[in-house]
């Protein structure tokens, strides 16, 4: 939980005047602030003998950061969607459905491949660029936009996995678990699971 700027400023002023953290916490609690807000405000400052309270690093927002991360995650979405479409088209070609002959269409393959040809280099280049910047300056990892978009990608991946699981259970209950259906469900699960695992691990490392 992030404390408000006014609360953080008060915590800094109280610490600078020699107030103890327990006394400050009691005063803030009596004023109606929650325990989480109080802890966040006090943890924003470090006590150093002979010096005013030292601020901890905070998340920053910049237009450049928003552009680069936005482009990377947009390319990631294109990559995931077109990879799904490509595998689905291949499955329809290998296991054609006589009741739906239009599914095994070469146009779907062409569009999916075209999307991958564009999306993958953009995602790879932006990801590598952001990783190199983070290695040179670890403070880059505190970008607020990158954090929000990463959690957004994790949310979409998690909801996709949940929806995919619901579809599999519904297919099982309806007796529609054909090989084509199972292969497509597995494709969705693998792609969404890979995104969740990759960005989830990166998010844990950044938080640490």
Kindly list the characteristics that best describe this protein.
2 domains; transmembrane helix; DUF5671; 208 residues; two-stranded antiparallel ribbon; 7 helices; 74% helix; transmembrane; mainly alpha
What's the helix and strand layout?
Blueprint: H1 5-16, H2 21-30, H3 35-43, E1 45-46, E2 54-55, H4 63-94, H5 106-136, H6 144-174, H7 179-207
Antiparallel strand pairs: 1-2
Helix pairs in contact: 1-3, 2-3, 4-5, 4-6, 4-7, 6-7
- The total number of structural domains is 2
Please mark out the parts with pLDDT under 50 across 5 or more consecutive residues, or reply none: none
Task: Tell me about the largest β-sheet.
Answer: 2 strands, antiparallel
Helix content class: over 70%
Radius of gyration: 25 Å
Give the number of DSSP strands: 2
Assembly annotation: single chain
Q: What would the principal axes of the Cα set say about the shape? A: elongated
**Mean pLDDT metric:** 85
InterPro entries: DUF5671 (IPR043728)
Organism: Amaricoccus solimangrovi
Protein name: DUF5671 domain-containing protein
Keywords: Membrane, Transmembrane, Transmembrane helix
Give a brief rundown of this model.
The chain is mainly alpha-helical and 208 residues long. The protein has helices spanning 5-16, 21-30, 35-43, 63-94, 106-136, 144-174, 179-207; strands at 45-46, 54-55.
Structural write-up:
With 208 residues, the protein is mostly helical. It folds into 2 domains: 5-55; 63-207, no CATH class. Helices cover 74% and strands 2% of the residues. The chain is built from 7 helices and 2 strands; from the N terminus they run H-H-H-E-E-H-H-H-H. The protein has helices spanning 5-16, 21-30, 35-43, 63-94, 106-136, 144-174, 179-207; strands spanning 45-46, 54-55. A two-stranded antiparallel ribbon has the order 1-2. Helix 1 (5-16) packs across helix 3, helix 4 packs antiparallel against helix 5 and helix 4 packs antiparallel against helix 7. The longest helix is centred in the middle third of the chain and has 32 residues, at 63-94.
